[in-house]
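Human: Note token order:
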Amino acid sequence: MARIAVTPEISIDEAELAFSFARAGGPGGQNVNKVETAAQLRFDVTNSASLSEAVKRRLERLAGSRLTKDGVLVIFAQTQRSQDLNRQEALARLLRLIATAAEKPKPRIKTRPTLAARKRRVESKVRRGETKRLRTAPPE
């Protein structure tokens, strides 16, 4: 089977993709009622041999509600009027999602506010408190 390149390091086997087709709504006239143009792409993330565990975890997080309980990513494309274009769109969306998941997140470096920043914060709080104090009614 052919392999589809996602990134220079990652490629997925075409056999891991399952396409099914359904009737789509939207523009298309009588064609919409007769032809199954909407494409549904299913990709089993949890059992994929093409992806590393780290990429799988990030992909599962990115997929959100498109991921089933079984770990299958479902992408539904129906914006185009032809089956082939919807199939290509669904595949492109999957490849974009995997490419995004393949990027390693930059580790956060903890920083502390400078002494000057802490002083400015306290001064602004004091000024704000003074403004609010002046709004109260004068004592009798």
About this structure: The chain has a mean pLDDT of 87.
